[in-house]
Design goal:
Low-confidence stretches: 8-25, 28-34
Order of helices and strands: EEHEHHEEEEEEH
Helix content: 25-40%
CATH topology: Alpha-D-Glucose-1,6-Bisphosphate, Chain A, domain 4
Number of helices: 4
CATH architecture: 2-Layer Sandwich
Radius of gyration: 20 Å
Shape: globular
Number of domains: 1
Strand order of the largest sheet: 3-9-8-7-6-5-4
Distance between the termini: 29 Å
CATH class: Alpha Beta
Strand content: 35-45%
Length: about 170
């Protein structure tokens, strides 16, 4: 989870009242802008077991059926999964695999804004369903590409949910 930092700006007494420290505020604002990275997040409840969802987000067959029809993937830490969308190619190194609980990829080759970002899936069984917490984190800025990807990830999460619940997804 991303760590939040709270900055307090204090005002000091100055002769007839209080005076702010105007020279420090722009520096603090600049520091905040350069240190904080943002993330796309989607949480959803899926009527399927963590095992079924884990298979869908780690196996080549599963990934081909909800995300990218042209996929080369293995559920193996260190393996570089390749997802092809027409002319676009995404290479994701499998950084973490906790069976039926968590999958994390590091983007090592893709469009410029994706490189260095992390994609993660966390699974929690709850009351006969699985809660999926998806995050695409490490974005350096909120741009038009970020907004477009947020929309597309929502569609792909719907596709993943459909695959796991009905057996049919809508991959690209």
């Amino acid at each position: 989870m991303a760590k939040s930092t709270l900055y307090n700006v204090y005002f000091t007494p100055y002769k007839l009242g209080f005076q702010s420290l105007p020279l420090l505020v722009p520096n603090i604002t600049q520091t905040i802008k350069t240190k904080i990275m943002t993330a796309i997040r989607h949480n959803l409840a899926i009527k399927a077991t963590p095992e079924k969802i884990f298979n869908a987000i780690t196996s080549q067959e599963g990934l081909e059926n909800w995300w990218a029809k042209q996929t080369v993937a293995k559920p193996e830490a260190g393996f570089v999964n390749i997802f092809t969308f027409g002319e676009s190619r995404n290479e994701m190194k499998v950084a973490k695999l906790l069976t039926n609980h968590k999958v994390e990829w590091e983007c090592i080759n893709s469009m410029e804004e994706w490189i260095g970002t992390t994609i993660s899936f966390e699974l929690e069984e709850k009351e006969g369903r699985t809660i999926l917490r998806f995050a695409h984190s490490g974005w350096r800025a909120v741009t038009d590409t970020f907004a477009s990807c947020n929309y597309n990830w929502a569609l792909f999460m719907k596709s993943l949910k459909s695959l796991c619940e009905t057996g049919t997804g809508t991959p690209s």
